[in-house]
Please model this.
Amino acid sequence: MAQKFKIKKGDLVQVISGANAERGGDRGKQGKVLRVFPETNRVLVEGINRVTKHTKAGQSDRGTRTGGIEHVEAPIHISNVAVVDPETKKPTRVGYRIETVERDGRQRTVRIRVAKASGKDL
Model:
């Protein structure tokens, strides 16, 4: 069974391990999560871990040529990224706050994701 993660699609995350940005790596860079892969424990982050992909030349239905060299994002391990605190703009851990909300005349418990550093909602 796939594991449940605290990082979700659309979160702003920062790379916390790997090569420095000054050395051509991605550590310290921030980006938005495009997709989460729970089966491989990886996330796809916008602008992070860009790789060069060579695609075979071909033709589309309209006759335009396709293929060549593309730069695309590759998945990065989920342990190498951390959610960015909305207040301090620095990486933080994620916690949960349980609240009871009244909906349709009934009491329901809701888990709200919270930044551990500032206590702000994510």
